[in-house]
């Protein structure tokens, strides 16, 4: 009676966590309110007559911190969001009713890793390195994987190894590697649903250039309605060498927000069991 | 080459969202910092030279607000967390290093709905109603479902229909329906991994009694290490009548916190295709 | 060599604190983010090699909570702030550059208490009671005090005694006493610099009416540029019977905000020494 | 009938603002939650039927940001706060009931400026420079001012001119000038009530040393119960050359907190009128 999916799950699945742990002091863009976590109540602060006590938390944070997803409401171009929606009118009473993060459906989709750093044979691409269409195509070919409609494509530059260093991860003087407008266009042509990378802004940042110009954001979010996932941890995924997998991502359903912290997963049936054809 | 799980996903899955939308003003326990969302930047506030602009968010919140999961660090009894861990020592530099929410593994597990309100033939159980072991067993029998080791069991009292009313959902004078110590013990005996309900505190709250006594929390979190999921939206799940399904829950990986807002899913292969036996 | 003011101060002054203590759970308007205070670090969390440790705080709050002052940017009418400033244009990059709280000069001014509850011989005016011009004039006459240009006038309805009760202080079903449009006009005609009261919204709130209509705010903030101070504690001031005094108020200098929590003082030379004429 | 203080105030006073403007992005210690201000509601978001609308704010912040005062609960030494108070026991239910910032009385006191940079003839002391007892005494002598019991002493290193530069103000590689243990002891011997400086930590920070050792904090807060005021703007005060004045400081009355943002004032009777002897 068990449905097919539950059958797979009960047979055992392997799961790789693609999200960064949220910690006070982790690197993040200074454009966004800083992640902070504290304990208003600790055990012992208030003990109930029956000997029990509860501890709790307070969080303040931007939504574009840690591993996170950009909603279509995040970026506008010439006053328009995706689909020609007027960016001013999309905001009603301080909430992006149109294209807010609450409009992103939970994802259980085909995920594809393009391990560009692996293909190039480097620990990580250099700051400011532009991942070209040639790089993307050669990487896919080397891995024997194709990018298809509705997929979620994750691009590994290797820059994620610098997350633990703090400020250098954000780029600043060094810049950050990533695709730029041509790579974004290549992804958009393939009809992908979402894209992600192991960097803070998904796309290439020029050395010293900061976030002043984000052409890939324009192409993806505004022109094509493709979600962007940033600050992924792709090291574990590269280590096991999965080129395709089930990608699971469930954004918080925050009404009217422009993004959400997320903790995406890559999942496979444990046995390496293949689908019945 | 596609693994079995991806095969199912690409064949199409049905997904039911079990999480509440996070909105300013939604009902929550006054013990926890209030959820608030605002837009520090809106489109047009700062337009870049290329015509693009970005909007962003600020969130402040407790972690036990909206649909959320309790980590084992949330409740102690006589100064001990689950497994006899000293509750004071578990907190290092203001973080629950032991039993914090970062220690909860993402869940892809068998989920079971016990629709007690459906079984009793009521829109919702009354405030303060205790869901008994008899209720649980009769509900399972009527649905033809069993509760097994490692499952996530969701108990529907129907009280979730009151979420939209605001303050009454939290209980106060009326109390809130739910299991109490015996129902919690029954669940624990079956070796479940996590439990959930469509109420703010999972367990029965006596009329006017507030959160002063939470015996089911003690049984589940402290004595048996079973996670508790609260403020679920179980109306959609009851409407489709799924008794078992794949339950997907990915808590935010907040280092040292006692809980996390979550957006759990119930998932089935679309075709109603059954697992190969 | 000592200047005259320092001479007075060194001779001794009496100070009455007119501000409410900021505490988690205190009554406040639900329109504003809730005040919350927690300790991210407590002593012992991180002890330095020399044996020292530091504790610190995290605050989240609206600015119109506790005793607070309204900047002119707080209220608009027909799209205009005070002086005909366009309310949309006054906000630049998410800050009220014009009429923000950073434009309020610190106040050392003549303060006048009008103890209306004392004049009427009641512990407090009833919820929804409108303090009339006749009440204001009779109170001033009874106290032998006049209201002059540049003064800060504090109106005591006695409602402040209910602050400790929590929700009833905010009004809701009962309404809240205070002046309405005629009282506000009377104050404005006298050229006062700021006004205050021991209630949450300064002006009369009709029973069950909430904050839907605030005509005194329009008269004072928008039409006359007169600041409003709310949720004052006037009990100590009434107890000593000071009708005039030096009023000291220093708002936080928050760039672009619409208000600030404040802790105003009433001060007099201790000896009751009078100014040289 | 006017009391003497009001007489002075009505005769006109000159006021110098010693507080920094609170702005998103200003330099602050990374040990404390970042100051952030946003507008949840702007004019136009919700217009009432009568044509009025209200804008409001959300603030998240540490208390040791911007110009601020340290309460005695801020620092402990060998587990003790000032007066031998046990640092663990002083914290009840997550609030420093003893020595919290709510225990600091509003200050109207004699203020003394010691313009060390002026005395040394430098724009600002170098990073890491220790202001010695000799410097303090020579500065006082040059200015012809003495330090007395109950005074508030403000030490100008000139480092405040770097506030606008951002990160360099905090010190890091350069260190920050200030007194160290001997200067603190000299101040304490004179029985001062509070001390302040134009730097982020009041005392000297060694180049590259961060906040690891704060001996002046121990001497002042723990051993002598003397409050510390940090990140003052002393440039205006030095420009007018006031050596003594009335110092006005009113901390927010935050129950149980370890500090508060403040906006202190230096005040003098305008006429330069001297006190009657």
Short description:
4 copies of one chain form a homotetramer. Chain A is α/β, with parallel strands linked by helices.
Structure report:
The structure is a homotetramer of 277-residue chains. Chain A has 277 residues and is α/β, with parallel strands linked by helices. Chain A is 19% helix and 25% strand. Chain A is built from seven helices and 17 strands. The first copy, chain A, has a nine-stranded mixed beta sheet with strand order 1-17-15-9-11-13-14-5-16. A two-stranded antiparallel sheet of chain A has the order 2-4. The first copy, chain A, has a two-stranded antiparallel ribbon with strand order 7-8. In chain A, a hairpin with a 2-residue loop joins strand 7 (91-92) and strand 8 (95-96). In chain A, helix 5 packs parallel to helix 6. The longest helix of chain A is centred in the middle third of the chain and has 11 residues, at 133-143. Chain A starts with a helix and ends in an 8-residue tail after the last strand. The mean pLDDT of chain A is 95. Chains in contact: A-B, A-C, A-D, B-C, B-D, C-D. The B-C interface holds B 25, 30, 33-34, 36, 38, 40-42, 45-46, 60, 92-94 and C 25, 30, 33-34, 36, 38, 40-42, 45-46, 60, 92-94.
> Please, what is the average pLDDT of chain A?
95
| Oligomer category | homotetramer
Helix and strand sequence of chain A: HEEEEEEEEEHEHEHEHEHEHEEE
What proportion of the residues of chain A is helical, as a percent range?
A: 10-25%
- Contiguous runs where pLDDT drops below 50 for at least 5 residues of chain A: none
For the CA atoms, what is the radius of gyration of chain A? 20 Å
Q: Main interface pair?
A: A-B, 102 and 102 residues
Question: What distance lies between the first and last C-alpha atoms of chain A, to the nearest angstrom?
Answer: 21 Å
Backbone structural class of chain A: alpha/beta
Number of strands of chain A: 17
Q: Using the alpha-carbon principal axes, give the shape of chain A.
A: globular
Number of discrete helical segments of chain A: 7
Query: What is the spatial order of strands in the main beta sheet of chain A?
Result: 1-17-15-9-11-13-14-5-16
Q: Mind summarizing the main beta sheet of chain A?
A: 9 strands, mixed
